[in-house]
């Protein structure tokens, strides 16, 4: 039984790693493609950012996470989104997408409610902060030793940057969106946590 189980899990784990990698490379490539279209159109897509407390802007809650204000903006978000998204997606794409949906919607609605008047907020940074909270906390929530180790390493590497991004002193940066995204990621770690599997009974026979 032991040998047959290991031969099944090995390929499945490799397929999950490959799927997570392909998905996140595709996601980041999509952001660059969208920004290319935005630049070619004279930044016509910037209007899909969130302008607070205007009911008409509620339709932009989700699209705003895919829009950036220039190639420097999308470049700054690409690596953290790629890494954090990949780590989060290793737990399964369905679970990952559920967490992303929760983060994006909660962050967008929060920005719509509390962002400064006459501002326009867009970019994947709210999702990035959410994925940071999700990855750091998931191992603790699910009591998985490997997940805890990964969370501690991610927290140690990016923790200082995350804290800096929460400072209201940062001009031109939506610290509100960062904070709401982080809190949404923490909530997602609980909302989509994996339940412990019941132990398998040994197969009968010799």
Order of helices and strands: HHHHHH
Count of alpha and pi helical runs: 6
Number of strands: 0
Low-confidence stretches: 1-8
Radius of gyration: 19 Å
Quick check: average pLDDT?
91
**Could you say how many structural domains there are in total?**
1
The proportion of strand residues reads under 5%
Looking at CATH, which topology would you report?
A: Rhomboid-like fold
| Biggest sheet architecture | none
N-to-C CA distance? 10 Å
Find the structural class using helix and strand composition: mainly alpha
Indicate the CATH architecture. Up-down Bundle
- Inertia-based shape: globular
Which CATH class applies here? Mainly Alpha
CATH superfamily: Rhomboid-like
Helix content: 55-70%
Provide a quick synopsis of the model.
This protein has 206 residues and is mainly alpha-helical.
Give a written overview of the molecule:
With 206 residues, the protein is mainly alpha-helical. The chain has one domain: Up-down Bundle (Rhomboid-like fold). It contains 6 helices and no strands. It has helices at 2-40, 71-89, 93-114, 125-142, 145-165, 175-191. The longest helix is centred in the first third of the chain and has 39 residues, at 2-40. Mean pLDDT is 91; it is low at 1-8.
């Amino acid at each position: 039984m032991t040998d047959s189980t290991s031969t099944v899990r090995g390929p499945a784990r490799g397929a999950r790693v490959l799927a997570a990698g392909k998905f996140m490379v595709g996601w980041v490539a999509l952001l660059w493609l969208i920004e290319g279209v935005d630049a070619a159109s004279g930044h016509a897509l910037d209007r899909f950012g969130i302008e607070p407390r205007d009911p008409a802007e509620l339709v932009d809650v989700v699209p705003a996470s895919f829009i950036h204000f220039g190639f420097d903006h999308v470049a700054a978000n690409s690596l953290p989104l790629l890494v954090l998204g990949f780590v989060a997606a290793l737990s399964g794409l369905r679970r990952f997408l559920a967490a992303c949906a929760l983060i994006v919607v909660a962050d967008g609605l929060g920005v719509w409610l509390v962002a400064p008047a006459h501002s326009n907020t867009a970019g994947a940074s709210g999702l990035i902060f959410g994925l940071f909270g999700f990855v750091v906390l998931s191992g603790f929530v699910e009591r998985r030793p490997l997940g805890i180790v990964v969370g501690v390493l991610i927290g140690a590497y990016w923790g200082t940057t995350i804290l800096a991004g929460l400072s209201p002193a940062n001009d031109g940066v939506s610290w509100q969106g960062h904070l709401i995204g982080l809190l949404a990621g923490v909530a997602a770690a609980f909302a989509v946590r994996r339940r412990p599997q019941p132990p398998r009974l040994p197969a009968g026979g010799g």
